[in-house]
Amino acid sequence: MRVWSVANQKGGVGKTTTTVALGCLLAAQGKRVLMLDLDPQGSLGSYFGHSPEVTTRRSFDWFAPSGKLDDSQLDASIHDTDTAQLYLVPGTTALATLERSAVSQDGMGLAVSRALARLWDRFDYVIIDSPPTLGVLLVNALAASEQVVVPVQTEFLAIKGVERMLNTLQMINRSRRQPLPYLLVPTLFDRRTQASVSSFRYLRKTWPDHVWNSAIPVDTRLRDASSRGVTPLALDPTSRGIQAYASLLKTLLKTTPEVAPATGAVAHG
Ligand SMILES: Nc1ncnc2c1ncn2[C@@H]1O[C@H](COP(=O)(O)OP(=O)(O)O)[C@@H](O)[C@H]1O
Ligand SMILES: [Mg+2]
């Protein structure tokens, strides 16, 4: 199992879109994929028709006190989608109540790692859609991951968000044996606008080793797919947006070699 987080402490930058796009592309390659929604806004769950207010089988259940999450409950939290091999654990507003709990309490920061360890043989890839706030949920997402994808909207105000995200990663790295690899992914790129072009250049210049060498373009097909509740691949596999995500996936697969991650091995028993 490979675990990736999609994270940025800014909303509206393409986190949920990136999660769905990578998820459906991996599933189309025959991988068993689980998308985990840890955002209290529950946009990923909503995308697939699960209301964040009323859904009962949900990621919130993963945070039950140690030993209280039984196998049937864990199973029940996993919903299928219309896409073969693509599964989802919806997020709900109840997640917000967890943000107040202390990370240190009861190994609270490892709840997701522990649940994923129990699903180790069932999925090839897990993609976590992270919340935009730094708290127990984001800490859980990053602790469970071996790679972070950071969508960055190509506009002027986006840079501050990147800096905050990098500070968070630095903090997380203090409790990891190896630094968590991350890739900044320019999103909502419109090459006709000065804002997009110059912020793309700024990103590449400032973090040359960590910025993807291409960008996800503004593509209304991605928005259409989300409003219809279908994956962008199901809506239009030829769209520029999904093509760009396919190219991003190639890059990610190259940088995450197929070896068992140390965190997984530890969490397993
Ligand atoms: N590349 C894109 N082109 C056009 N619209 C996009 C693109 N990426 C995201 N969107 C739209 O922008 C909005 C915010 O994206 P979303 O993925 O929900 O961001 P986040 O999860 O970071 O809040 C959504 O309406 C989504 O459909
Ligand atoms: Mg989102």
How would you describe this protein?
The protein has helices at about 15-30, 45, 70-75, 95-100, 110-115, 135-145, 160-175, 195-205, 220-230, 230-235, 240-255, 260-269; strands spanning about 1-5, 35, 80, 85-90, 125-130, 145-155, 180-185. By secondary structure, the protein is an alpha/beta fold. It has a single domain (about 1-260), classed as P-loop containing nucleotide triphosphate hydrolases (Rossmann fold). The chain has a seven-stranded mixed sheet with strand order 3-4-2-5-1-6-7, sandwiched between helices. Helix 7 links the parallel strand 6 and strand 7 (about 180-185). The protein is globular. The relative contact order is 0.19. It binds adenosine-5'-diphosphate (ADP) and magnesium ion. Magnesium ion binds near residues 39, 43 and 129.
Uncertain spans, ≥5 residues at pLDDT below 50? 260-269
CATH fourth-tier homologous superfamily: P-loop containing nucleotide triphosphate hydrolases
Assign the CATH class.
Answer: Alpha Beta
Note the total helix count.
12
Task: Give the oligomeric state of the chains in this entry, treating copies of one chain as homo and distinct chains as hetero.
Answer: single chain
Terminal-residue CA separation: 15 Å
Mean pLDDT: 92
Q: What are the secondary-structure elements, in order, as H or E? A: EHEHHEEHHEHEHEHHHHH
Q: Could you give a short account of the major beta sheet? A: 7 strands, mixed
Beta-strand segment tally:
7
Structural class: alpha/beta
Task: Name the shape in a single word.
Answer: globular
Domain count: 1
